[in-house]
Amino acid sequence: MGTSSTYAALVYFSAYNTKEYGKTVSVNQFQVKEVRWNPKLGGQNMEMRLVEYFADEFNNQVGNGVDVRKFPKAMAKLKKQVKRTKEILSANTMASISVESLYDDRDFRSTITREKFEELCGDLWEQSLIPVKKVLSHSGLKLDEIYAIELIGGATRVPKLQAKLQDFLGRKELDKHIDADEAIVLGAALHAANLSDGIKLNRKLGMIDGSSYGFSIELDGVGLANNESTKQLLIPRLKKLPSKMRSLKHDKDFEVSLYYENGDMLPPGISSDKFLQFAVSGLTDASEKYSSRNLSSPIKATLHFSLSRSGILSLTKADAVVEISEWVEVPKKNLTVGNSTDVTPNVTVEAARGSSSEAGAENLNVDGDTSSTSNSNEVEQNAVDTGTEKKLKKRTFRVPLKVVEKAFGLGVSLSGESLSEAKLRLNALDKKDAERRRTAELKNNLESYIYATREKVCQKKQAYIVK
To answer: Per the record, where are the segments of Polar residues compositional bias (predicted)?
Structure first.
């Protein structure tokens, strides 16, 4: 559990043997079997419960209808101290909070117990178990089949959250072999080092990961079959497929739409399961060009998809496959009459010599085989060309198709008007930053002038007193 999200992953550890520099070594590896998450639940939710609690308490202390929530600067101060208070409650049963000049030169001081904090976040504890329950239900594993439970993320240090996990998993203690705050950063660095060719690890670690989302494909065009135009699964969830190819028999231009497999499991900030659309053109022209030829099979359109290591799916290229049957003239070969009659006499002579004993019979077989082999080579060398003949051969052509991409949702490029507005905002922020820096510089110069003038005045007074 991190600041803003909660993840539960099922990982399978194993080992395999490989050869390095001629030696057999054992390499450890892990494979991600299942992942479930809640993108709206994290340590920040607990902090906001405390912020609301202390904001109400401060409003009651001040009175006169004052609401500290209306003042962003005051709320920023309160949130900063609340985070520190939450960390103290993870190690102590009571914590205090102190904010100087929170609003209108009024200081705020209060205390809270761990019991009260757990009461304020009562519904969050059950929500934190939902990803774990989903992982177990979709994987089909039982609790006694899990070897270790590792906690990752700063929010997992909350004692009540650990107690809930212990009760649900039926364990007295949870595994804490890695640093909860540094685990994500170190894991990302290790994964990058494994992928890099310029970094060499002292000990190799295998990683098998898959996409967190499944992808479906839908085709739209004139003359498509019913089974082609309906939405179909392209890449299953958590299936490691660096590339995927799909073929269809069609001779007209069409459109390709890509969807997330499950509309209920979408990335944060995405509201629609459709995220990409491609217009594939050039197939109609290719069909008209090769329609007069002798086609051995209908024209096929081949789509090449690629799934990157980051789980990004894209259509890399598309081409039309055309198979043509043609009659091709090839030379004919025939044997000469003289070479065909030279084989028998050699075998007959060897047979007459070897009819007296069994040893001679053995010599017959060996010599006969040798003679046959040598004569067959001579036959091939003395073959003559007697003309040409026609044979039916197939030829395959691949015609590149044009692909135009159209993105949806967050992937859409900014329009000219939106881009101009963004530039104006950036320019306004740059001007404010320049004014702030200029104001700070002038204040520093004024302060330096005041100190220098005061020092000169003091020196003159001191010299006058001495005189």
So the answer is: 368-385
What is the C-alpha separation between 257 and 97, in angstroms, rounded?
A: 54
pLDDT for 466: 63
Retrieve residue 238's tokens.
């958590």
Distance from C-alpha of 92 to C-alpha of 111, rounded to nearest angstrom: 12
Residue located via tokens 């607990």: 46
- Look at residue 337 in the predicted model and tell me its pLDDT: 46
Residue type, 108: F
397 vs 293: CA distance, rounded Å: 12
The contacts of residue 312 (CB under 8 Å, 6+ apart) are: none
Phi, psi angles (nearest 5°) of residue 234? -100, -50
CA atoms within 13 A on the CB side of 56: 5
Q: Does domain 1-209 have CATH number 3.90.640.10?
A: yes
Q: Residue 132 pairs with which residues in a beta bridge? A: none
Q: Provide the residue ranges of all domains of the chain, joining segments of one domain with +.
A: 1-209, 217-327+396-411, 336-382, 414-467
Reported CATH class of domain 217-327+396-411: mainly beta
DSSP state of 421: H
Tell me the pLDDT band of 113, cut-offs 50, 70 and 90: very high
On the 0-12 / 13-18 / 19+ scale of CB atoms within 10 A, 380 is: exposed
H helix intervals, 268-313: 283-290
Structure tokens belonging to residue 240: 């490691």
H or E segment to which residue 233 belongs:
strand 232-235
CB atoms within 10 A of CB 305: 21
SS3 content of the chain, % helix, strand, coil (to 5): 45, 30, 25
CA distances from 136 to 10, 127, 129, 364, 404 (A): 8, 15, 11, 77, 42
Write the Ramachandran bin of 247: left for phi over 0, alpha for psi from -120 to 50, otherwise beta.
Answer: beta
Cα–Cα distance measured from residue 435 to residue 426, given in angstroms and rounded to the nearest whole number: 14
Report, as an integer, the average pLDDT of 302-321. 84
**Could you give the CA distance from residue 289 to residue 45 in angstroms, rounded to a whole number?**
63
Q: pLDDT category, 160, cuts 50, 70, 90?
A: very high
State pLDDT tens for residues 169-220: 888 888 878 888 888 888 888 888 877 777 777 777 788 888 888 888 888 8
DSSP secondary structure of 47-112: HHHHHHHHHHHHHHHH-TT--GGG-HHHHHHHHHHHHHHHHHHTT-SEEEEEEEEEETTEEEEEEE
- d(CA 105, CA 64) in angstroms, rounded, equals 15
